[in-house]
Amino acid sequence: MEQNKNQLREESIEFAIAVSDICDNIKGCSVYVNQLLRSSSSIGANIHEAKYAQSRSDFVHKLEIALKESSETDYWLELIYRKNKFDEETYKTLKNNCGIIRRKLIASITTVKKNESKGD
What we know:
Structural class: mainly alpha
Distance between the termini: 14 Å
Helix content: over 70%
């Protein structure tokens, strides 16, 4: 499980960097771009914080925040794409990567909760 958490953390960092690199080239829409930058980088920040959680419930809480941030990121990606600020290929790539992270977060949260209910 530790390996999966480190992989997820690394993927979230790479995703935030990719989003940041693309946002560096967007002209206008600064409010939307700032929101996208904040939410996309917050995913990894919360995954990183989960590593130092004080309890299992705190760990799950941090991952759930990361999950919410991934959902918000998906929204800002779509909004900025619809404003024609990046091409369809870029949008699909970022949306796909965000979705992969989101699914891994869901799986991690589900696993921890399942193990918790077993008394593990």
